[in-house]
Amino acid sequence: MASNLEFERRSYIKIRTLLGIGREDILIDLEFLYGDVSLPYTTVNEWAKRFCEGLGLVEDEERIWRPRSFATNSNTSEICWKVEENPHITVEELAMSVGISTGAVHSILIDELRLGNLF
């Protein structure tokens, strides 16, 4: 969900775009109105483009994000348990069984479990 500031700026871009005001002029207005919390031209351009294409919502589309950290207690414990159970298990097998990338498994093995000398 957009913050109040994001909502204001996007609404301003939408209204000015629908009135036929150029993107550069919108950017100048935003810089005057918001100063340091203005937007870069690329952002103004992207939102104006969306509004020109008929995408009228000023809110971002809902996104499904993966967790920021793959090194959860659950993943770390499961990998530790699997390595103790089978010291010859491969990184690929660990990744498939836990459901995370091989890079994430490497990071857990090296950074969390300090098993860098084994892998």
Task: Please describe what this structure looks like.
InterPro entries: Transposase-MT_Hybrid. The structure is a single chain. The protein has 119 residues and is mainly α. It folds into 2 domains: 4-52; 73-112. The chain is 60% helix and 0% strand. The chain has helices at 4-18, 23-34, 41-52, 73-85, 91-98, 102-112. The chain is rod-shaped and about 65 Å long. The mean pLDDT is 83.
| Count of individual beta strands | 0
Task: Please state the overall shape, judged from the principal axes of the Cα atoms.
Answer: rod-shaped
Number of helices: 6
How many domains, as an integer?
2
Oligomer: single chain
Largest sheet: none
Please write the string of helix (H) and strand (E) elements: HHHHHH
Report the sheet-strand fraction: under 5%
Helix content: 55-70%
Low-confidence stretches: none
> Span between N and C termini?
42 Å
Structural class by SSE content: mainly alpha
Mean pLDDT, to the nearest integer, reads: 83
Protein name: Transposase
InterPro entries: Transposase-MT_Hybrid
Describe the structure in brief.
It comes from Oopsacas minuta. This is Transposase. The chain has 119 residues and is an all-alpha fold.
Write the layout of secondary structure elements.
Elements (H helix, E strand, L loop, with lengths): L3 H15 L4 H12 L6 H12 L20 H13 L5 H8 L3 H11 L7
Helix pairs in contact: 1-3, 2-3, 4-6, 5-6
